[in-house]
Write a structure and sequence with these properties.
about 180 residues; alpha/beta; Rossmann fold; two-stranded parallel ribbon; 8 strands
Length: about 180
């Protein structure tokens, strides 16, 4: 969750009501998120040190879950040109981590809840293939088409892809997954 931008945006969308838990795997970054909450007057949120690859049954269920997973970063290569020298060997390990986080997020979701799976990459193995595999193993979920439409975004059966040369944004992927009632 560090440095807290998405958490601040969600708290704003929640109008500083309800309860927001922002998990961050790196212990030293948790205080950065807390400072951002304090600076912006956010009282509905708390930052916690958490490894999202480990399921937390003690947290109960959530109406909304954001899985902003670690990724190859290939969508932000314009801002971070050193990524082009990154060795993509071991991609299967990264994909396994992404899948664990996605599944744990889904397992933390309340009935009729929504989960957003997002990456800052354009790599289909980390994006559409992840969602396709998830849906095969979780038939009680469906992909929701976003309400918002931006020029150039590519909406597909497994999520929405933003390519820099088509959208004028960084390259990234978002899938909105809704848990159906049983």
């Amino acid at each position: 969750a560090a440095p807290g931008g998405k958490s601040l945006t969600m708290a704003q969308q929640m109008q500083n009501t309800g309860s927001l838990v922002s998990g961050e795997v790196v212990p030293g970054r948790v205080h950065l998120i807390e400072k951002a909450f304090q600076r912006c007057g956010v009282t509905c949120a708390r930052a916690v040190q958490n490894d999202a690859t480990v399921f937390r049954s003690d947290w109960g269920k959530f109406d909304r879950v954001l899985c902003d997973v670690p990724c190859s970063g290939l969508g932000v290569i314009a801002k971070k040109p050193d990524i082009r020298y990154k060795d993509l060997a071991g991609m299967e390990n990264l994909c396994a981590i992404q899948q664990k986080i996605l599944q744990n997020g889904a397992d933390s979701l309340a009935e009729n809840g929504r989960l957003v799976y997002s990456t800052c990459t354009i790599n289909s193995q980390e994006n559409q293939v992840q969602v396709e595999n998830f849906l095969k193993n979780n038939p009680d979920f469906r992909v929701v088409t976003p309400d918002l439409s931006l020029p150039g975004m590519q909406v597909g059966p497994y999520g929405t892809l933003f390519l820099p040369h088509k959208t004028g944004t960084d390259g990234f992927f978002v899938a909105i997954l809704e848990k159906l009632s049983t």
